[in-house]
Design a protein that fits this description.
Largest sheet: 2 strands, antiparallel
Distance between the termini: 56 Å
Strand order of the largest sheet: 1-2
Main location: cytoplasm
Shape: globular
CATH superfamily of the domain at 175-365: Cyclin-like
Strand content: under 5%
CATH topology of the domain at 175-365: Cyclin A, domain 1
Number of strands: 6
GO molecular function, one term: RNA polymerase II transcription regulatory region sequence-specific DNA binding
Subcellular location: Cytoplasm; Nucleus
Protein name: Retinoblastoma-associated protein
CATH class of the domain at 175-365: Mainly Alpha
InterPro entries: Cyclin-like_dom, Cyclin-like_sf, RB_A, RB_B, RB_C, RB_fam
Helix content: 40-55%
Length: about 725
């Protein structure tokens, strides 16, 4: 409460807990301590008394000895809990020790009195009006001695040698997940430096204008800004913690920059030089690197689905810190992911979610360069007045664009110019037309074209998901709703200013249903919308009506959306409706995950995937068996497991688990194995569980039955929803 302004910073809170443990460990009698803490305290005491007699020690010597004791205990704690030593030491000496002094506690005076601490906590509690954390001290199971017998603890699969001691699997917790992710990031960046490498220096020297000095100055100036903003958000005593995280981000920034340049080494030196001298590119790349670091520290195991609550440091916090436009940040995300193969699946998903947030609302805020680009696109001489032609919607989305393509378009390479001034060292963002000979027309903006393609794809996927929940009985309406939705984004893009993509989607759905006499109320739409992932009630409760005036989505539809698109909407009720927009091509994600399921060659359509773990064996990280959830049974193919009889026992166990399967079906939990395994027979899914080939194993049959159970439950749920809607209609 004293150190942190936001107590939901899980990592710093845990590090402060370690600091408290250090304080009590070093003041406890060695006889009370267990190993390895007993040895840590006694070793320093023995070494200290051997160096200098107590009477001969001066104050500086005693202080040095105390620091040695603190450091030794911190080292042991960090090793036991997989924490970064430098970070915990920094928190201890810059935040915890000053905290002790501020409340009048001196380490040499022994343990503090509970009554004194409780009185000081009362003052803090009354000041902040937060929950009284002391309530958790009374009869809380977490703080009670562990009385669970060892026989009840889950264990790893039995090894070949039955006499060998069994290993216990530590349960996965938010803190352990956060510590594991942080340790992986630090290990990846151990080989990187916070200065440009020799390879980067070589690239810099080959530029028309050497960008080295401007890059170093930019990194230094942004560090001061970041430390200040971090301290304001977290706590003034945490400025150095912010500095540590910034330095990790700088290491990742240089690492990714070098990887990017190696992958596009064949681009012309003109683009090479322009990109490395582009201020917006460097700020975006550094911001993306720091966002990865901040998200790694801010995420836990329960947040991997992307539904976690936002904190003060959540995206788009970094954009505000660096005064960076969301549209400019979007340009670097895809190149960043491709250039850094060590990113975890969770972090790739996080960056992809950041990209989605930009496309759905952040890029459409007033002041965004996106609107200038769209305006320029419509004003181009001889060009069609649309950011992206609808004819390209059903074409596969190309993902071979480089950062230079997005940050420097529509700049032309000098090879294509008859003449022109030498390249400038200043930034040339998309919103500023490039200097080209008068005989040439301005080029189409690559960044705008790609942005609109991605927006169309995201918009259709959102619409399709919502449509399936609400209007699956009216499949003929989906192309009509999509056409109106796409028309609005393309021709009435001003409706998106300071608004959200989903607001236009819901209005399009309501408008088409209205003219087609399909009874679908806004109340039903928003109720279904709330069930979609990554949604917020503010999206339909607070919509911009006019300048600084907000109201509900139904008011927006009546006063703004319908007034703007009334003529177009009424055309869908006529005998000559508008030409339907093509359905966007649905590609696979451009971001390849290292642990994506892979098909077994000639293996009856069996798909396998590695265990979900933030660590890789190739990098020398912790074995994923220690990360296995306690509710799973681990079969590790590739390690010594024993004879085939053990696999037969697994099949037998699956066959005898009907009761467990029924219970899991009742709580509507999708069977976990089905996420990784799929069985097809001659292209048809055996979903009904009624037919099985003779050569199918019991395991395959059981999986088919589990699939059937899930399918029936989904149909039943859908029918129940339709019955409810029908009742309302009556």
């Amino acid at each position: 409460g004293k150190v942190l302004q936001v107590e939901d910073d899980l990592v710093i809170s845990f590090q402060l807990l370690l600091c408290v443990l250090v304080y009590f460990i070093k003041l406890s009698p060695p006889a009370m301590l267990k190993e390895p803490y007993k040895s840590a305290v006694t070793a320093v005491a023995v070494n200290g008394s051997a160096r200098t007699p107590r009477r001969g020690q001066n104050r500086n010597t005693r202080t040095s000895k105390q620091i040695d004791t603190d450091t030794k205990v911190i080292e042991v704690l960090c090793k036991e809990h997989d924490c970064n030593l430098d970070e915990v030491k920094n928190v201890y000496f810059t935040s915890f020790i000053p905290f002790l002094s501020s409340i009048g506690i001196v380490a040499s005076n022994g343990l503090p009195e509970v009554e004194v601490l409780s009185k000081q906590y009362d003052e803090l509690y009354l000041k902040n009006k937060d929950i009284d954390a002391r309530l958790f001290l009374d009869h809380d199971e977490t703080l009670q001695p562990d009385v669970i017998p060892c026989s009840q603890l889950e264990r790893t699969p039995v090894k070949n040698n039955p006499d060998e001691e069994l290993n216990f699997i530590l349960p996965q917790t938010p803190v352990r997940a956060a510590m594991n992710n942080i340790q992986q990031l630090i290990m990846i960046l151990n080989s990187a430096t916070d200065k440009p490498s020799d390879t980067l220096i070589m690239y810099f020297n080959n530029c028309t204008v050497n960008p080295k000095d401007s890059i170093l100055k930019r990194v230094e100036s942004l560090e001061h800004i970041f430390k200040k903003k971090f301290a304001e958000a977290v706590g003034q005593g945490c400025a150095e913690i912010g500095s540590q995280r910034y330095k990790l981000g700088v290491r990742l920034y240089y690492r990714v920059m070098e990887s990017m340049l190696k992958s596009v080494i064949l681009i012309t030196y003109f683009l090479h030089s322009k990109l490395l001298n582009d201020n917006v590119f460097h700020t975006s790349l550094l911001a993306c690197a720091i966002e990865v670091v901040m998200a790694t520290y801010g995420r836990s195991a329960s947040q991997s689905d992307g539904t976690s609550a936002e904190t003060d440091l959540s995206f788009p916090w970094i954009l505000n810190v660096f005064d960076l436009k969301a549209f400019d940040f979007y340009k670097v995300i895809e190149s960043f992911i491709k250039a850094e193969p060590s990113l975890t699946r969770e972090m790739i998903k996080h960056l992809e979610r950041c990209e989605h947030r930009i496309m759905e609302s952040l890029a459409w805020q007033s002041g965004s360069p996106l609107f200038d680009l769209i305006k320029q696109s419509k004003e181009r001489e001889g060009q069609t007045d649309q950011p992206e032609p609808t004819s390209t919607l059903n074409l596969p989305l190309q993902h071979n664009h480089t950062a230079a393509d997005l940050y420097l378009s529509p700049v032309r390479s000098p090879k294509k110019k008859a003449s022109g001034p030498p390249p400038s060292a200043s930034s040339t963002p998309d919103a500023q037309p490039a200097v080209t000979p008068q005989t040439q027309k301005a080029q189409k903006s690559t960044s705008l074209s790609l942005f609109y393609k991605k927006v169309y794809l995201l918009a259709y996927l959102r619409l399709h998901t919502l449509f399936f929940r609400l209007l699956s009985d009216h499949p003929d309406l989906e192309p009509l709703i999509w056409t109106l939705f796409q028309h609005t984004l393309q021709n009435e893009y001003e409706l998106m200013r300071d608004r959200h993509l989903d607001q236009i989607m819901m209005c399009s759905m309501y408008g088409i249903c209205k003219v087609k006499n399909v009874d679908l109320r806004f109340k039903i739409i928003v109720s279904a919308y709330k069930e979609l992932p990554n949604t917020n009630q503010e999206t339909f409760k607070r919509v911009l009506i006019r300048e600084e005036q907000y109201d509900s989505i139904i008011v927006f539809y009546n006063l703004v959306f319908m007034q703007k698109l009334k003529t177009n909407i009424l055309q869908y009720a006529s005998n000559r409706p508008p030409t339907l927009s093509p359905i966007p091509h649905i590609p696979r994600s451009p971001y390849q995950f290292s642990n994506s399921p892979r098909r077994v060659p000639a293996g009856n359509n069996i798909y396998i995937s590695p265990l979900k773990s933030p660590y890789k064996f190739s990098d020398g990280f912790q074995s994923p068996t220690k990360m296995t959830p306690r509710s799973r049974i681990l079969v590790s193919i590739g390690e010594s497991f024993g004879t085939s009889e053990k696999f037969q026992k697994i099949n037998q166990m699956v066959c005898n688990s009907d009761c467990q399967l029924k219970r899991s079906a009742e709580v509507s939990a999708a069977p976990k194995p089905l996420k990784r395994l799929r069985f097809d027979i001659e292209g048809q899914d055996e979903a009904d569980g009624s037919k099985h080939l003779p050569q199918e194993s019991k395991f395959q049959q059981k999986l088919a039955e589990m699939t059937s159970t899930r399918t029936r439950m989904q149909k039943q749920k859908l029918n129940d929803g339709n019955d409810t809607s029908a009742s309302e209609k009556k």
